[in-house]
Amino acid sequence: AFSSEVESGSRQENASKQKSGVVLRFHESLKDSRVKLSALVLCLLVTLGAGTCARAQNFVTGLDAYEAGNYSTAFGNWWPLAVKGHAKAQASLGLLYYSGKGAPRDYDKALHWFSRAAEKGQPTAQFFMGLLYLYGKGVKKDLGLAHAWCDIALTNGYMDSLFCRDAIEVQMSG
């Protein structure tokens, strides 16, 4: 009886060792997969981050040029970013076209860039959309849309749109 218990115990021990070996190999392969996945994720983040950092740097370079009065350089920095969907660059191009600085004054192009940025939630662009509709620049004058865009910009924290929205309310009530 003792020898059958020992034999049974030995079989259980071997089965347990085999299970342990399988579990250990599974954990090792899982660990390798985690390491590979972590490396892939890190590589992806670095790649995406590098692009984001470069875009942010180009935007700031454009902003510095704008503030120094070098509007054509600002335009040159912002154009590629705007085409790629950078909302602040889109709003900035809209401003250049609206004001005629660094680009010929063109309300249709200003509307194009402001509307792209405004739809992405960019408050400055939303405010200028309101102004375009208020004054009928590049669009038919529409106090309802002007009010709506100024109100959206205000809701998104662009405090300068308060005077615009309130002035429109006075016009609409009078």
Structural description of this entry:
By secondary structure, this protein is mostly helical. 83% of the residues lie in helices and 0% in strands. It is built from seven helices and no strands. The N and C termini lie far apart (107 Å).
Rg over alpha carbons: 31 Å
- The biggest beta sheet, please? none
By secondary-structure content and strand pairing, the structural class works out as mainly alpha
Mean pLDDT: 79
Beta strands, count? 0
Number of helices: 7
Quote the beta fraction.
Answer: under 5%
Sequence of secondary-structure elements = HHHHHHH
Which overall shape is indicated by the principal axes computed on the Cα atoms?
A: elongated
| Low-pLDDT regions | 2-8, 19-24, 26-51
First and last CA, distance: 107 Å
Helix content: over 70%
Summarize the helices and strands and which ones pair or pack:
Elements: H1 2-67, H2 71-83, H3 87-99, H4 107-119, H5 123-135, H6 143-155, H7 161-173
List keywords for this structure.
single chain, 174 residues, 83% helix, mainly alpha, disordered N terminus
In short:
The protein has 174 residues and is mostly helical. The chain has seven helices and no strands.
